[in-house]
Amino acid sequence: MGMANELEKENAAIAAMEYVEDGMTIGLGTGSTAKYFVELLADEVADGLVVRCIETSEQTRRLAESLGVPLIPFEQVERIHLTVDGADEVDEQGQLIKGGGAALLREKIIANASDHMVVIADPSKQVERLGVFPLPVEVTPFGYTITAKIVYDVLVASGIDKPRVSLRRTQGQELLVTDGGNYILDCHCERIPDAEALAARLSNIPGVVEHGLFIGLARTVIIGNENGATVFEFS
Ligand SMILES: O=C(CO)[C@H](O)[C@H](O)COP(=O)(O)O
């Protein structure tokens, strides 16, 4: 990841600030691109902008707290006007793969509960078809080996050629445990023929808590470049 890439991420976040209005409740995404947005928001808060935010991960909670961005407990949120988050892959229909940072469950709950989800990304995230980035599937620890086998069968039944399902580990090789206390299966697909159909099938498996396919959730996708950003709107 060079400097150019960082500039592209930052420019996407700058463009997302256009959607922020005084008085909003805002969902804060997770990851290195979303971090730029939280930092920009913090600058505006310091200058008097009034917003209330809800974080999609413990990592983002710590970041927001350290920068003085006001957070409110999710239980107190009645409406989320805007959520700005990154993505691991974005296709031409605005369908996403998310969860590279293991925060997909809270990210999806918050994106789904938001009036407007804005995705910010650099051009390396744009794909014609989803699937090169391994699809994260969050599963309950109980029965995860059986769930992994069923996930594999569902991938094959969904037209994925020779998928590989691996249990995510930390850099120290321990099993990764999500903020929700679950495990992540990374599904190496290479090519997902029908993301919407696969999403529905994965959601039907007992033991699957959530998966990283975000279908029909992103209304705006902002791709940063070195000079600015390109905005794509989806209905
Ligand atoms: O889905 C995510 C975390 O679960 C992130 O949005 C995704 O991994 C992109 O991260 P980055 O902006 O660092 O590339």
Describe the model:
The protein is of the alpha/beta class and 235 residues long. It has two domains: 6-126 and 216-233, 3-Layer(aba) Sandwich (Rossmann fold); 135-209, ACT domain (Alpha-Beta Plaits, 2-Layer Sandwich), CATH 3.30.70.260. It has helices at 3-16, 32-46, 58-67, 104-112, 144-157, 195-203; strands at 25-28, 52-55, 82-85, 89-90, 96-97, 117-121, 135-139, 164-167, 183-188, 208-211, 213-214, 218-224, 229-233. The strands form three sheets. It has a six-stranded mixed β-sheet with strand order 2-1-3-6-12-13, sandwiched between helices. α2 links the parallel β1 and β2. α1 crosses α2 and α2 (32-46) packs parallel to α3 (58-67). The longest helix is centred in the first third of the chain and has 15 residues, at 32-46. The site of ribulose-5-phosphate (5RP) has 18 residues, from α2 and α4. The site of ribulose-5-phosphate has 18 residues, from α2 and α4. Belongs to the ribose 5-phosphate isomerase family.
